[in-house]
Specification:
Blueprint: E1 2-7, E2 22-23, E3 26-27, H1 28-39, E4 44-48, H2 52-61, H3 80-91, E5 97-101, H4 110-120, E6 126-132, E7 141-144, E8 148-151, E9 168-178, H5 179-182, E10 193-197, H6 209-223
Parallel strand pairs: 1-4, 1-5, 6-10
Antiparallel strand pairs: 2-3, 5-9, 6-9, 7-8
Helix pairs in contact: 1-4
Amino acid sequence: MITCIIPARSGSKRIKDKNLKKFFGKPLIYYSIKLAIRSKVFNDIIVSTDSKKIEKIAKNLGANVPFLRSKKNSLDKTPIIDVLQEVVSKLKIKEEYICCLYPTAPLLKENDLKRGIKMIKNNYDQIIAISEFVSPIQRALIKYRRSLIKFINPKYRFSRSQDLDKTFFDTGTFAIYKKKNISNYKNIKNPKIGFVEIDRYSAVDINNNDDLNFAKFLFKFRKG
C-alpha cells in the first residue's frame, strides 16, 4: 500500500501564499488533493502544513492533517526529505511506499501518477517525474560583464543540437519513495532512481507569476 503526503507550508517568497493562490476559482492545492482522491490508489492522503488556513481547506477537501508541521521543517531551505521524515516518524506510517505529491501541480495527469506508483514496485529506491529540456543544456549561456554572454561549456560551442544527448529536469510534480529508505535517505550513496517521463505541458513548475499564468493558459487550452 502507499501513503500520499502533500507538503504545503504557508511561506512563499516569489508568490505570496502560493499553495492557496486562486486557479480558476479554486486554491492550487485543491487540484493535487482531488487528483490524489480521484486516483483511488492511496491508503491515506496527508497534508503536511504549518498553516491553520491550509489545514482547514485540506480537511474540507477530504485530506487528513494529523498535526501542524514543526517550525524547523517549515523554513525556505528545508529539504523535502526532512518533511517526509517528520510525517513518517510522527505517524509511524507502515505502508511500503510514500508518494510526495506537490501542491502546485494542477496540470498533472492521473495516468502519469499511476505509472509512477507502478514503477516504484520494481525495486527502485525512488521514482521522480521528469520532462525533457526544450533546448540542449550543454549549450547553455550565462551573462557576464553587464552586456556579454559566454558558454558554460565552451567545448560545445560549435556542436549541433541534434548531436547532443537529450537532458531532462525534475518537474516538481511528484516523487515516490520506498518508505524504509526515508529515515536514512541522505546517507544512501547511490540510490536507484527510476523515472516517469511526462509531457512538458503537464510539467509546469509554478514558482512565479509567469509560471502561474502559463499554467492557466495550458489548463484552459486542455479544457477546450
